[in-house]
Design a protein that fits this description.
The complex is a heterodimer of chains A (about 600) and B (about 575). Chain A contains 24 helices and 18 strands. Chain A has about 600 residues and is α/β, with parallel strands linked by helices. Chain A has 5 domains: about 100 residues, Glutaredoxin (3-Layer(aba) Sandwich), CATH 3.40.30.10; about 210 residues, NADH-ubiquinone oxidoreductase 51kDa subunit (Rossmann fold); about 80 residues, Ubiquitin-like (UB roll) (Roll); about 90 residues, NADH-ubiquinone oxidoreductase 51kDa subunit, iron-sulphur binding domain (de novo design (two linked rop proteins), Up-down Bundle); about 55 residues, 2-Layer Sandwich (Alpha-Beta Plaits). Chain A has a 5-stranded mixed β-sheet with strand order 7-8-6-5-9, with helices on both faces. In chain A, strands 11-10-14-12-13 form a 5-stranded mixed β-sheet, with helices on both faces. Chain A has a 4-stranded mixed β-sheet with strand order 2-1-3-4, with helices on one face. In chain A, strand 7 and strand 8 form a beta hairpin. Chain B is of the alpha/beta class and about 575 residues long. Chain B folds into 3 domains: about 90 residues, Ubiquitin-like (UB roll), CATH 3.10.20; about 90 residues, Alpha-Beta Plaits (2-Layer Sandwich); about 350 residues, Rossmann fold (3-Layer(aba) Sandwich), CATH 3.40.50.1780. Chain B contains 19 helices and 20 strands. At the A-B interface, helix 17, helix 18 and helix 19 of A face helix 2 of B.
Chain lengths: ~600, ~575
């Protein structure tokens, strides 16, 4: 039974912040007010992906996508589109490439270039209704596994699919399952790592908010494969929407008997509980996560023994992250061969990226492994705004590194990114342009890891802090060439000798920028200049020749450092200037520059 | 059965059991891998990253303390890469360490300093102009111990020791990253956090970050105060360990040299706490017989270990009625020094400065309890640990090894073998049994009660005494205390007499004893070696039962009357209070 019309409103965290719940309610009341009938469905879904432009409303039939919808726009949409079938043109989504004419959603470059497996249900179904998940073949994979396959066959299928862990290291998930299945114990556990912590990464949250059942189903499949009857989802308390929706999903699944006792009459029992984390980044490391669930301070433990042998409460435990699990039901639904056919040889399937930074379409996207950075940035991402020049892309968040323009056409997969000195990480992808200072970017990420280091092992606790001290000095113009040498040596030592993945990858942003943008570091150290005009101590504000003499800058300068006559070019007294940037903001013609003239872009 | 595994370390082939770590395998062939945080059986968490090695075919460097050997493994412990990483890690730690080596409690036993020397470490990161310096947190308000983050290398040994040896878990990491420090939750003061001052953390610490409250200065001042007569008492187990501070092997009896050193320092009178240990047996034994015969609260618990008394007052106050009312030997001695002894010397109590040399940091706090004194003066004015005494001797340039052994030269220095074995687990019980059985039976009974000796955490025995079955137990160490009391709450067994001590092994392994390095803790059973000293003294003693001591007989005749008399209650007995911590309970 299909309804005449479906109105889907994005219920991702960002859009919820922008009143998407109230917008949904208003749609309902407006439809009622105009007596448009009972066969028009409205639903809050998971994230649509285009986060910067929300809240979004998608209307079927016709797949019309509205973006930036405000509460006061609802009446117009209902009166025009819902009642009369006339799209409200001024609210239609306008990507950079779609300005000229109306297209339905699947034709938009942003979506057309994507392959949505993990996000298959996000923005499509109502995550609060298990029936919508089931209608999209939900729990069929679990049914198939429990009724037709042995645990060994299940693991074989996983291994065949080539699915690699999406949490960061890219370890083959099937092999991990096999390790845990081979450990002999009276009790085993499945843990879903939903402690997503990379700054700017939110793919796991999108999945949990938009399609919670896919994770529950996958955990049950995993439980069956490895011989576990209990699963925990470790999720940060800062994801209240996801926590709430997961709670509802677990109740509904138990109600329908797809979680609980004797699933699909197979005799297999599986229950799932939530555990909330306090948001420590290190708790995304599996042994620290396990310690945290046990009620201990979240600090990583030695490996070996691996969790597959001695994990939660000392029992064999399989830990996978949200995105990894979200792939699993589809693998069993469509088969490992199908999954393997997507992506590259050694990295099968897709990858979800959280695209941010200097990019037109900020948001979530999912592409087959092997897609190039150029496609992601310039086609799906809509390119860099304000005609700025691409400088680098930072992948893997605080654990990753930067990729320069010359690698734009490298297919993205686990191994290629590592070869480039970066890593996949959990999938943060930040685009940097010529206005970004690479020393400052490295400092930003290092500041994050210094803050988030648990303090257990020496190199990470003390070493990253010392690297940060040095970067701070370089940005302030106090750096020396010896500092660069110490940075490199410390960075290597920290990578080699830290206890867990956090420390072992923490120096990456510094080492990678040092490798690709050493000249920029040297400019800070030798020339005492910040080429991007970011570091205040190393930046000079200069008025360019296109100054129109409007005096705005002089009037806005808090220290009276700008002089000049009306309609004549102004001058900045650099001895008085405090580098606050007020003049640059005030200038209507972009006539104030912070870029040193003498310095050539690398 | 463990299989043997073949591997190569630094080009040397070796064969070791498969449960060995690389560290242990290397040590077995004489390769000494540097190590800082590893404390076998207590702390094996690889915090410090100093024991890292290169394993062929493995990415990065691995900690040898945690990595098990594998057949065919090829390990390099001293490549350029390893050397660089170890040096760097040590330099990073040094950057946050406050070097005050001349006045550090660990002047001669700092495992960190040894490593800095070995690797010739630079100290560039301590340059405050170039690098942020950490906020220092010092917790020195307790009467016994100091926690000082400026010397802490965050190895975590104390955290594990507190959890595993004391069964308390008072210490843990707080804050994160570069701001991490160790202490009670939210840096509460130790005295508010339920600490019993057993000092297992001090013994675990590789530096001077956790230490006794150094009170050497008070003794130095008293020694220069013409108006004071200094009377020193020395606990049984000090003599079994102090030699270690001067290069003697663990398990050397240095009694005579210890007394000679005290004389060199200028101490006026020396008495032996062993004497009041004998006295304790008379008082405590009589109390026990009274409880046994007149329906008193049983089991009776011994009360000589202040760590244990703290434990009971803080965690099991419901058992306060079970605790013997006897003061500890230290406090009995203190009370007698300021009364009986002062009279003998013709001095007023305030002209006496009473100092005790103790293997214990909890004794420092015990002496400061308000009930431990009268008429406005303290029974014990100053408690100096074995380590502090050794430091004064060293600082004065006294050549301990060359000293001619002497006997103590005070009035109350005579003791029996029974009083002497107080210093080890089972010793108080055995001493008490020697006297109690003889009193109850009315004839001479055996001397040795070997069932209560040894290092099992909880020892139990049953003796037929004058037709009555007497169930005794001996418990040592916080973790074992917890285990025993938990058991006591549920068992039907009627225990009559239980000896409990706050430290595992008893006083010989007290928190104030010489520090034994992590490596030596692995090589030797320090508790057994030191206990042997006390048992040897006992075996050779002329008198081995407390009630046979002539000095004890004399003091009852001249001063106290009889055990549990009004006077001895006034001077030698005390009372206990329920205490709370973290302002809860």
């Amino acid at each position: 039974m299909l309804d005449r019309m479906h109105i889907l409103i994005c219920g991702g965290a960002e859009c919820k912040q922008s009143n998407s719940v109230e917008i949904r309610d208003k749609f309902k009341s407006e439809i009622k007010r105009l007596n448009l009938g009972d066969d028009i469905q409205t639903a809050l879904t998971g994230c649509f992906g285009l986060c910067a432009l929300g809240p979004h409303v998608l209307i079927y039939p016709g797949e019309t996508l509205y973006s930036g919808v405000k509460l006061e726009d609802v009446t117009e949409i209902v009166e025009q589109h819902v009642a009369k079938g006339k799209p409200v043109e001024r609210l239609l989504f306008k990507g950079n490439f779609d300005r000229s004419k109306f297209r339905n959603r699947s034709e938009l470059t942003f979506y057309a270039k994507q392959t949505r497996i993990v996000l298959r249900n996000c923005g499509v179904i109502n995550p609060l209704d298990i029936n919508e998940y089931i209608a999209r073949h939900g729990y069929e994979g679990l049914g198939k596994v429990l009724t037709n396959m042995t645990p060994e066959e299940t693991i074989d299928e996983m291994k065949k699919s080539g699915l690699r862990g999406r949490g960061g290291s890219g370890f083959p998930a099937g092999v991990k399952w096999e390790f845990t299945s081979k450990s002999v114990s009276d009790q085993k556990y499945v843990i879903c790592n939903a402690d997503e912590g990379d700054p700017g990464a939110f793919m796991d949250r999108a999945v949990l908010e938009g399609d919670p059942h896919s994770v529950l189903e996958a955990m049950a499949i995993c439980g069956y494969a490895i011989g576990a009857d209990t699963g925990y989802i470790y999720i940060r308390a800062e994801y209240p929407v996801a926590v709430e929706r997961l709670g509802i999903a677990i109740k509904q699944a138990e109600g329908l008997g797809v979680l609980g006792k004797n699933l699909f009459n197979s005799g297999f029992n599986f229950k799932i509980e939530l555990r909330l984390g306090a948001g420590a980044f290190v708790c995304g490391e599996e042994t620290a996560l396990i310690a945290s669930i046990e009620g201990e301070r979240g600090m990583p433990r030695n490996k070996p023994p691996f969790p597959a042998v001695k994990g939660l409460f000392g029992k064999p435990t399989n830990v996978n992250n949200v995105e990894t699990f979200a792939n699993v039901p589809v693998i069993f639904l469509k088969g490992a061969d199908w999954f393997k056919s997507i992506g590259t040889e050694k990295s099968s399937g897709t990858k979800v990226f959280a695209l941010g930074g200097k990019i037109a379409n900020t948001g979530l996207l999912e592409v087959p492994m092997g897609t190039t950075l150029r496609e992601v940035i310039y086609e799906i991402g809509g390119g860099i705004p304000n005609k700025r020049k691409f400088k680098a892309a930072q992948t893997g968040g605080p654990s990753g590194g930067c990729i320069t323009a010359k690698s734009l056409d490298t297919p993205i997969d686990f191994d290629n990114l590592i070869a480039l000195g970066s890593m996949m990480g959990s999938g943060g992808l930040i685009v940097l342009d010529e206005d970004n200072c690479m020393v400052d970017v490295a400092r930003f990420y290092l500041e994050f890891t210094v803050e988030e280091s648990c303090g257990k092992c020496t190199p990470c606790r003390e070493g990253t802090k010392r690297m940060l001290d040095i970067l701070n000095r370089i940005c302030e113009g106090e750096g020396t060439m010896n500092d660069l040498d110490v940075l490199e040596r410390l960075g290597k030592m920290i990578k080699d000798s830290s206890l867990c993945g956090l420390g072992q990858t923490a120096p990456n942003p510094v080492l990678s920028t040092l490798k690709h943008f050493r000249k920029e570091y040297e400019a800070h150290v030798i020339d005492k200049v910040c080429p991007a005009g970011v570091c205040p101590n190393l930046t000079n504000y200069v008025v360019l020749d296109n100054c129109i003499g409007c005096t705005k800058c002089a009037r806005n300068c808090p220290v009276g450092a700008i002089e000049g006559k009306v309609k004549e070019k102004h001058f900045i007294d650099l001895d008085l200037c405090i580098r606050c940037g007020a003049c640059k903001t005030a200038c209507p013609v972009n006539a104030i520059s912070t870029k040193p003239e003498s310095w050539e872009e690398v | 059965m463990t299989n043997l595994v073949n591997l190569t370390i630094d080009g040397k082939a070796c064969q070791v059991p498969s449960n060995y770590t690389i560290l242990k395998a290397a040590e077995s062939i004489g390769i000494n891998i540097p190590r800082l945080c590893f404390l076998e059986g207590i702390h094996e968490q690889s915090n410090c990253r100093v024991c890292i090695v290169k394993i062929e075919g493995v990415r990065g460097l691995k900690t040898s303390c945690s990595t098990k050997v594998i057949e065919g493994m090829v390990v390099y412990t001293d490549t350029k890469e390893v050397y660089e990483a170890v040096s760097f890690n040590l330099e990073l730690l040094a950057g946050n360490h406050k070097f005050e080596c001349w006045k550090c409690s660990r002047e001669n036993s700092c495992e960190f300093l040894d490593l800095l020397r070995r690797f010739n470490v630079d100290n560039d990161f301590s340059n405050a102009k170039l690098f942020d310096q950490k906020e220092i947190k010092v917790n020195n308000s307790s009467d016994a111990m100091i926690l000082d983050s400026s010397k802490c290398v965050l190895c975590g040994r104390c955290v594990s020791a507190c959890e595993k040896l004391s069964g308390l878990g008072i210490l843990n990491f707080s804050n994160r990253g570069a701001n991490t420090y160790v202490g009670p939750a939210q840096f509460h003061n130790l005295e508010d956090a339920g600490c019993i001052y057993c000092g297992k953390c001090i013994q675990a610490c590789p530096t001077g970050a956790i230490r006794e409250k150094d009170e050497i200065k008070f003794l130095e001042r008293a020694l220069r105060d013409k108006s004071k007569t200094i009377v020193v008492q020395v606990a049984p187990s000090v003599r079994a360990a102090i030699g270690e501070e001067f290069g003697y092997k663990i398990g050397t009896n240095a009694e005579g040299q210890m007394f000679a050193a005290l004389k060199e320092l200028g101490i006026h009178e020396i008495i032996d706490t062993n004497f009041t240990a004998d006295l304790t047996i008379l008082e405590e034994g009589s109390e026990f017989i009274d409880r046994l015969q007149n329906g008193g609260v049983l089991p009776m618990f011994t009360s000589c270990s202040p760590g244990w008394v703290n434990y009971l007052e803080l965690y099991y106050p419901e058992y306060i009625p079970n605790l013997s009312s006897c003061k500890s030997p230290q406090q009995m001695a203190g009370a007698l020094i300021k009364t009986y002894y002062a009279e003998k010397l013709g001095k007023k109590p305030e002209e006496i400065y009473s100092v005790s040399i103790m293997p214990c940091v909890a004794k420092k706090a015990e002496a400061k309890r308000p009930e431990m004194g009268r008429d406005g003066y303290k029974d014990v004015d100053l408690v100096i640990t074995t380590r502090e005494l050794a430091r004064i001797i060293r600082h004065r340039g006294i050549a301990f090894q060359d000293l001619e052994p002497i006997k103590p030269y005070g009035l109350l220095a005579e003791y029996t073998g029974a009083g002497n074995i107080f210093g080890t687990t089972g010793g108080v019980m055995e001493a008490a049994l020697r006297t109690v059985t003889e009193i109850l039976e009315g004839h001479s009974t055996p001397v040795d009660f070997t069932e209560v000796r040894g290092l099992d955490n909880i020892k139990e025995a049953t003796y037929m005494v004058a037709g009555t079955e007497v169930n005794v137990a001996v418990v040592h160490g916080g973790a074992a205390i917890k285990e025993f009391i938990t058991k006591l709450k549920t068992t039907d067994k009627q225990y009559h007499f239980v000896e409990l001590m706050g430290c595992t092994g008893g006083c010989i392994n007290g928190g104030g004893q010489p520090i034994v390095s992590a490596i030596n803790q692995e090589k030797y059973d320090v508790r057994a070696l030191r206990a042997k000293v006390l048992y040897n003294i006992d075996a050779k003693a002329e008198f081995r039962k407390s009630h046979e001591s002539k000095a004890v007989k004399t003091i009852y005749e001249e001063f106290l009357g009889k055990p549990n008399s009004h006077k001895s209650h006034d001077l030698l007995h005390t009372h206990y209070n329920e205490r709370s911590f973290y302002d809860v309970k």
